[in-house]
Specification:
With 205 residues, this protein is of the alpha/beta class. Helices cover 45% and strands 12% of the residues. The protein has ten helices and six strands, in the order E-H-H-H-H-H-E-H-E-H-E-H-E-H-E-H. It has a six-stranded parallel sheet with strand order 3-2-1-4-5-6, with helices on both faces. Strand 5, helix 9 and strand 6 form a beta-alpha-beta unit. Helix 1 crosses helix 4 and helix 5 packs parallel to helix 10. The longest helix is centred in the middle third of the chain and has 16 residues. It is globular, with a radius of gyration of 17 Å.
């Protein structure tokens, strides 16, 4: 492979960032604001799919769009500062650059809020594409000619496979390593601290 062909996509929640504290606080605030019970502790155990997939568990269908808008409006003030980078996140993005490649973030999260997280943490990908989940992530991966996609969820594996990209899974989210392998991940890493060494080996193929 030539370095010019190396574009690596990364998922955001539970791949680059530990979004559980911020999302938990935002769900708690949404519950207080609306008077609707939300089990925030439960909700943060199933991160990955789009926001509306979680909201349907707590609100009637006719309120979902409005509640999603309210959550996204509240999110920056509540969730950004509360959310740390996961171990190895910055180094993983920097490793792609050091290899002469491009790093992009492809996430189901609302794109403006994804941008805020990355800016707050000083992680600077070449592009951020939001509002894409599972197989639809392939749209951005194909557009940007990504050859690798890194994520923590079986939905990320499906996105990589749909784009014919190499699927690197990290066992830092809700899906166990065996589940990620069964979904078709090409390799499963414990976390992103293992990524630079793997990338060096991959780029030499």
């Amino acid at each position: 492979m030539t370095s010019r062909a190396l574009t690596v996509g990364f998922d955001l929640d539970m791949t680059l960032i530990d979004s559980r504290p911020g999302i938990q606080a935002c769900y708690q605030a949404l519950s207080a604001r609306t008077g609707t019970y939300i089990d925030a502790d439960l909700a943060i155990t199933r991160l990955g799919p789009p926001l509306v997939d979680e909201l349907v568990n707590w609100f009637p269908a006719e309120r979902i769009d409005a509640m999603a808008d309210l959550y996204r409006e509240m999110y920056p003030a509540i969730a950004i500062a509360a959310t740390p980078a996961l171990p190895g996140a910055r180094e993983a993005v920097e490793a792609v650059r050091a290899a002469g490649g491009r790093a992009i973030v492809v996430t189901a999260k609302y794109e403006p809020n994804a941008q805020l997280h990355l800016e707050h943490l000083g992680i600077e990908p070449d592009a951020v594409i939001g509002d894409l989940w599972a197989e639809r992530k392939a749209e951005a991966l194909i557009e940007h000619r990504a050859v690798v996609y890194v994520g923590d969820h079986t939905g990320d594996v499906r996105g990589a496979r749909t784009a014919d990209a190499y699927s690197v899974a990290v066992a830092t989210g809700p899906c166990a390593a065996d589940e990620l392998r069964a979904a078709g991940a090409d390799i499963v890493l414990g976390d992103l601290t293992e990524f630079p060494a793997w990338l060096t080996e991959y780029a030499q193929r």
